[in-house]
Amino acid sequence: MKRLLGLFAVAAVIFGLDSTSINLEKFPDDFIFGTASSAYQTEGAWNADGKGENIWDHFVHKFPEKIADGRNGDITCDSYHKYKKDVVLLKKLGVNFYRFSLSWTRILPTGFPHRINQAGIDYYNNLINELLANGIEPIVTIYHWDLPLELQKLGGITNSLFADWFEDFSRVVFENFGDRVKFWLTINEPRLICVFGHSTGVFAPGIQSGGIGEYLCNYNVIKAHARSYHLYHKSFRPTQKGRIGLVIDCQWYEPATNSTEDIEAAERKLQFDCGFYGHPVFSKKGDYPQVVKDFVAERSEIEGFPSTRLVLFTQQEIEYIRGTSDFVALNHYTTYYAANDKTITPFTEHPSSAKDSRVHIWQDEDWPSGIFPEFRTVPWGFRKLLKWLKDNYDDPDIYVTENGFSDDNKNLHDRGRVNYTTLYLSALLDAIYKDGVKVKGYAAWSFLDYFEWASGYTIGFGLHQVNFTDPNRPRLPKDSVKTYTSIIKNRKLTPID
Ligand code: NOJ
C-alpha cells in the first residue's frame, strides 16, 4: 500500500497534479471569466429561416467520409432554438462573458451585403439582448470558419477580393450589433483556416495546396482582419467605443535539448505557427517573422520556384496591418518538444509549411491526455507561452479565448477536465504574478459538447454534455461545471484532491 501511495505521489508530481503547486492567489479584480462556442459547432438550424449554405454545410454533406463518425452540424446542440436555455446555464455558471461567433450566411445568405436576412439579425439580437439582460457580456467572433459557399465558388479566402468581402460583412455586423457588442474578435485561428482548410484539406473547403494556397490564405486572411479592424477603428469606435482584435492559436514548443540547434528549432516552430499570424499584427516591427521568410525562401529555391512561395506584404501593407489589434486573443491547448530536423527534404512537388519549417515535434506520452491524444495537459508550457507573448509582442493585454480538455462525450465525471482547468489557471496565475504578464480574461472551451469538425461527435470539450440522440438536446452539467463555477465565484482556485 505504502509503495502504491509513493508511486501515486511520483506520478502526481510528474503530471503536475501536486496540489501544493496550485497557485492560490486571487484573480485580479479586472480579470474576466467566460466560456466559448462557435456558430457551426453549436447552432444547428443549418437551413432554417433563410440561412444560406456555407462551406461546412457543403463539406459535411458532400464528404461525410471525411468526418470521423460521418455526422454533421445540421442540428448539433440546436442552440439556434435553445439560446434562452443556454443563457440560463451560462448565468448559473456565473460567467462574466460568453464568446460566440456569427454565422455569415445566416446574416448574408449569399455572402454579399445586398440582401440581409432579417431572421438572422433577429436571432443574434435576441441572443445578445438575453445575455445582457442576465449580466453577461457578449464577446463576438465575426468569422469562425463557416465561409459562405457562394464566396467559396469564387475562390473563397484565396480570392484577392476576400478582404473586401470580409470588410463588407464586418460593416453589417458593426451596424447591427455594435451598439451593444463592445468586444469583437475578427477571425478565429487563421492558422487552422490556412493549414487544415488549404494545405492538408482535412477541413472545409478541403483544398490541398500546401505552401502555396496555404500562404495565399495567410496573406489574404491577415489583410482581411486588418480591414475589419480599420473599419471599426475609423467608422464605429468613435461612437460605439468597443475593442477589437485577432484570435491566434499558439501551442508551446519546448527545445528537446540544450543545443543551439534545438533551441532555434523550437523558436522557429513558434514563429511558423504563432508568429506567422501574430507577428504582422502584434509585433512592433510588423511583417512575417524574418526566420519564416528566410526558411520559405530557401526551400522555394530548392524546389525550383523562381522566388519565394510566400506572398509578401508590401511596405505599405506592413504599416497598414501592424498594430491592428487592441489585445492578443489566444487559443491554447498543449505543448510539444521540438528538435531541429537535419534532413532537408529533397525536391518535392508538394511543399508545405511543415517542410519549410524543418522542425521535428513530438509529445511525452506520459503527459495526461483526453480523448484527443495530442491535447495533453502540460500547464508549464502555457505559462512559458504567455511569457513569450509578453516578450515578443510588447507586453500586450492577453485574453485567453480558448483553453480546454477533450473527453469522449459520455461521462459526466470529467476528472481530466477538472484537473486541466485548475492546472492551466494556476499556470496563468503564475504568469500574472510571477512573470508580470497582463492576462485579463479566460474562456473555457467549450460551453457545450458539440460538432468537433473532422472529429464529428467523437470528441467533447464541453463543460456540459449534450444528448445528441434526444431531439430536445438536453444539456447536463459535468463535474467541471461545479469546479469552474466555484473558481468564478471565489475568484480563486481550489487545490485538486
Ligand atoms: C480551436 C477551434 O477554434 C475550435 O473551433 C475547436 O473546436 C477547438 N480548437 C478544439 O479543437
TrEMBL record:
Keyword Glycoprotein present in the record's keywords: the answer is yes
InterPro entries the record matches: GH (IPR017853), GH_1_N_CS (IPR033132), Glyco_hydro_1 (IPR001360), Glyco_hydro_1_AS (IPR018120)
Q: Biological process GO annotation list?
A: carbohydrate metabolic process
Give one GO molecular function term: beta-glucosidase activity
> What keyword terms does UniProt attach to this protein?
Glycoprotein, Glycosidase, Hydrolase, Signal
Active-site residues per Swiss-Prot or TrEMBL entry: 402 (nucleophile)
Superkingdom, natural source: Eukaryota
- Report if keyword Methyltransferase is assigned: no
* The protein's Enzyme Commission number: 3.2.1.21
Signal peptide span per the entry?
1-19
Which SUPFAM superfamilies does the UniProt record give?
A: (Trans)glycosidases
Subunit-structure text: Homodimer.
In which family does this protein belong, per the annotation?
Belongs to the glycosyl hydrolase 1 family.
Q: What is this protein called?
A: beta-glucosidase
Source species taxonomy: Eukaryota, Metazoa, Ecdysozoa, Arthropoda, Hexapoda
